[in-house]
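Go through the following before class.
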Amino acid sequence: MQMSDILASTFVLAVTDLAGSKKFYLEKLGFTEDFSVDGWSFLSRGACRLRLGHCPDAKPMSSADDHSWFAYLHVQDAAGLYQEVVNKGVKIWHVLGDKPWGMREFAVVTPDGHRIVFGEEWPVPPEG
């Protein structure tokens, strides 16, 4: 029996300040708001979809010891996107760099402490 394909993905995030988080994603990361209802904001940029849910009593991800990143987003022109977010004052978790697993990547931190990694396939230099 053939399994169904996954056609898209949406990340659902608990945020303590919905207005502030929405502003961050719109103004700093270039998302647009597609829809909103009481306590929720539905955002997108390209193929990435987010649902921000207002949870004022949630423990912020900034208090997590490890693995507080929620997404690895594959992009075109990681260097251009990196410059875009740096110019907008986004907090950088990992600076842009070429990784031995064949990705050029960087990571940012959101106001709630979530971390997002952005990566572009990059040729691994030959050993020798």
